[in-house]
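Most newcomers find our protein records easier to grasp once they have seen one. A learned vocabulary of local backbone shapes supplies the integers on the structure line. Here is such a record, shown just as it appears in the course material:
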Amino acid sequence: MTDVSPNRPQSYIVLEDIKKVYNWLMSNAGGQLESLAKHRLWLNVDSAQDDWTWHAADELVFGLAYDTGGRFVVRSLLLPYRILLLGAGAHEYRVASLPTLTSSATNIPHPEMVRSGWSKLRETRQLFDICFKVQGREIPAHRGMLAAMIPHFETAFAGSFRESVVSGDDTELPVYRLPKQEAESAFAVQSVVDYVYTGTFSRPTFSNLDEADTALEELLDLMSLSKLWDIPELANGAVKAIVDLELIRFDNCDEVLEHAEACQMTALITLCQRTKEQNRW
């Protein structure tokens, strides 16, 4: 076999004879083929249609992904003869197990790490490059964070609304100009900025009727601004706060309904309508 195998013509009949020989060797050869490890006894093909390629057992490697460095992938024909080939001098490629990877002690998921990094810059007042001025307050922020989280600002800072940014002098941040129809409430603008950095906002607190009216007005402003700037999660958060804080009363239900209709907040519209229907007194 060592002399004739590479010289056999390529045919199905010969292939079947070769398989019979390999099967016989599987049952009878035991460990007696190791001395022939350098001889090209093994037909290494996937099918009879392939160009016949003969290899020595020492050249064959189980678990190899590609032929490389004088070593060859074991093809389909020889796979059933794994034990025979390994006993004849073939090799098996094994990748060692990866040791446990070290990571940071906090192990924060990447999206949270990004948000946390921006929040830290905000807390330490570093790298601010834009601010909002509303109701006598200055609310600084980072354009990159605003643009990444809110499509309105991506459009504004990319060019479509650059005229909305008023440059300050060397000691002042550029100001994002807020048209009155966009935002007149410092609470609403601050809540948007808080939401961008933290994913939440601080609900207003109150201890008397006047403060409750102010809280409702602020939350309605936030709902309107969130709707205008296409921040649906924050708009819904404002609605939920209005309901949770029990700010809708019989004497202001019409006002809330008017705001809800203007913002097309379907859930709040339905709530107000049902409230009016249930309290016809």
